[in-house]
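It would be a great kindness if you could assist me with a short task in structural biology. Thank you for your consideration; the sequence and its tokens are set out here.
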Amino acid sequence: MSSSDATFAIDRCSTIPLFQQIYRRARAAIEDGRLRPGERLPSARSLAAQLGAARGTIETAYAMLAGEGWIVARGAAGTVVAPQLRQAGSTASTLTSSKHAGAPALPAQQAGLLPFRMGMPALDAFPRKLWSRLIAREAQALNIASLAHPDIAGERQLREAIAAYLAISRGVACHPEQVFVTAGYQGALTLITRAVLEPGAPAWFEDPGYYLARNALAAAGTPLVPVPVDDHGLIVERALAAAPDAKAAIVTPAHHSPLGVTLSLPRRLALLDWAKSRSAWIVEDDYDGEFHYQGRPLAALKSLDRDDVVIYAGSFSKVLFPGLRLGYLVAPERLVARFTAAALTISAGLGRLEQAVVARFIEEGHFARHLRRMRQLYAARRASLARALVDVFGDGLVLSLQGGGMHLLAWPDGGLADTELVRRAEAQGLAPSPLSMHAIAAACKPGLLLSFTNIPEDQAESAARRLLAALKQDAGADSSES
């Protein structure tokens, strides 16, 4: 590819790790159309040679892109931009499904802090000065050994810190050897598909469910069996009726993504019994289990696992900041060797400095204090935004207020598709998400996912009024005025 140098150009003076630079540049090139759907990317070996980078660095970036559904590996045919991407105007690409071909484009990088943006913690409350001091301290402590290849499973210090934290906070008992540090949840999912999910083996998947995970699994060749969700979580009976011989179940038991409900204890036990009896695996995505506003955070599903059938995955994106791109998984003890072998095929390890800083952040108690502050802050912001939406919309909006999570689920009246409502909101500088983009076969009533984490209490009413004005904006007003 003659344009590789320009497309994947890296800045060796930047503090951003090389794999993250390559990931961001490739994604930007896909979004703005420089790399088109179906277009072949350079191999990891050739791109590494062109950029003067380690092959493992390229493979890590490619794994992140594949995990999010931007690219697809086709064996001997090479790696290509995902054919199911389409151009959305001249600005960005979007993944489409056969049912929701009109789903909106993924928010652009510069839209990260727009009101209601999903998946974004309260960045205004993050202890940046403390974090900077920890970075400086760990950087000064670097020695020659620190500059060598990192541990493929993650730095020992961080794995020990994660294991200790999970035992206390989430009820997950594990050894540091079972912990694998990954490039976010998508990186964990990529590792899981390589280690235990055989191509062609069906997996239960919540419907509606997290669309990026759905895309990643589909790209890995995993047939998904959509399973309905009600007020008690995934309906295990329906899953058993649809595909009793499935080899995996991907679930969000603490707070279902996106409905926010909690998987009930009877269904948790039924799910564990099924996995044991069928020699299947349960992938637990505990993406925001720390944020529960009524009592203590719920224990993880993994805490009930007596047969070692649950693969537990977590991420620092929601509790610290998404730019960190660090997550982790806890592998069943009998699968540690298999996960290690799989990790060797997709990554040469992650940056040591970031891992050391996160480990220190946990060990010195800053992580626990930060979570306590965020729970209090989110509880207040959640209540403020809910009150403002009720006051501003009146009977024109129905809210679902679950016991935890980082977003509200709202159903506006009027009968318009939620994708159209999102389009109107985006035109006014807001960033809600449509519920329908998470559905596979489920008939979802048009709904909006509204994150409250980055909306301070004194701005809740203003944000609610902006949303009301945007949703009532005539679809043709902008074009007629122009």
Observations:
- The radius of gyration is 22 Å.
- The CA atoms of residues 399 and 410 lie 5 Å apart.
- Residues 109-125+369-481 form a domain with the Aspartate Aminotransferase, domain 1 fold (CATH 3.90.1150.10).
- The first strand starts at residue 71 and ends at 73.
